[in-house]
Amino acid sequence: MSLIGEKPAAPASGKSEHIKDGSDATFMADVIEASKTQPIIVDFWATWCGPCRQLTPTIEKVVNAAKGAVKLVKIDVDANPAFAGQLRVQSIPTVYAFVDGRPVDAFQGALPESQVKAFVEKLAKAGGGESPLDELIALGKESLEIGDVGGAAQAFAQALQTDPTNVKAIGGMARAYLIGGDLEGAAEVVAMAPADAKDPDLDAARAALALAEEAPSETAAVEKRLAADPDDHEARFELAKALAGAGHLQAAADHLLTIIARDRAWNEEAARKQLLTVFEAAGPTSEVAKQGRRKLSSILFS
């Protein structure tokens, strides 16, 4: 319903590759055919509709945040009444979700952002789909697992071009730099993330950088000391720090576990604290962390 003496404007559409204005003429291509490869949301609206002006910025924001997992087609029912009539749109805004060429969900009215977000997330899952950004991150992780550091770096770089603030992409790229031995590059990437950002790969990169920063540069002297006295915990600890800083996390963990087994309280439990940082650098699902935690528990509770 329009306000007296005021000509309402149409909802402003944000410029986005994920949002477009549709029509009856393009409905088959924009919605029916397009939804066979990607979930499509159709927003039926009109220029005189107050609730439409409330919903439009919200739904556009949520669709853009989905990074391509779904797309939005906006249709002015006054200019394009045919498909709105076929779908029995009786009030606006009305929003339909299409998957595989058919409507699978709908709602009416200007819902709050939390409900719109839930609607979009449900639709993305129903479409089987990850967004292109999620696919790049998954590809990067898979590449790291098989040792293709170059392929991983390329995938994460493309993901960061799409979303420079994506914590998973930042963590993955940092991990790729670390595996490649580029500590400076890893540190620059980690700095892109907010200080309070949390992600397993990002946490691992931060821990690995901390280990590298603390690592002694020379080990010959401590190795000689340790060879002369296997109970020289300080020498073993320094050697473990050097190994961890160089990325040899399993060897570092073994030395630290040896110290804990022989004197768990040594130097205010310095070995146990360092071991936990090594586990974090290796990642919670790594064999270094899983086997190391089992050995640690066996030592502490024996």
Shape: elongated
Alpha-carbon distance between the two ends: 76 Å
Number of helical runs? 14
Instruction: Assign the CATH topology of the largest domain.
Output: Glutaredoxin
The CATH architecture term of the largest domain is: 3-Layer(aba) Sandwich
Helical residue percent band: 55-70%
Strand content range: 5-15%
CATH homologous superfamily annotation of the largest domain: Glutaredoxin
Give the class-level CATH name of the largest domain. Answer: Alpha Beta
What is the strand arrangement across the widest sheet?
Answer: 1-3-2-4-5
Structural class: alpha/beta
Weakly predicted, low-confidence segments: 1-14
In short:
Residues 1-20 are annotated as: Disordered. By secondary structure, the protein is an alpha/beta fold.
Topology:
Elements: E1 19-21, H1 27-33, E2 40-45, H2 50-65, E3 71-76, H3 82-86, E4 94-99, E5 102-108, H4 113-126, H5 132-145, H6 149-162, H7 167-179, H8 183-190, H9 200-214, H10 220-228, H11 233-245, H12 249-262, H13 266-282, H14 287-300
Parallel strand pairs: 1-3, 2-3
Antiparallel strand pairs: 2-4, 4-5
What does this protein look like?
With about 300 residues, this protein is an alpha/beta fold. The protein folds into three domains: about 20-125, Glutaredoxin; about 130-200, Alpha Horseshoe (Serine Threonine Protein Phosphatase 5, Tetratricopeptide repeat); about 220-300, Tetratricopeptide repeat domain (Serine Threonine Protein Phosphatase 5, Tetratricopeptide repeat, Alpha Horseshoe). It is about 55% helix and about 10% strand. The protein contains 14 helices and five strands. A five-stranded mixed beta sheet has the order 1-3-2-4-5, with helices on both faces. It is elongated. The model is unreliable at about 1-15 (pLDDT under 50).
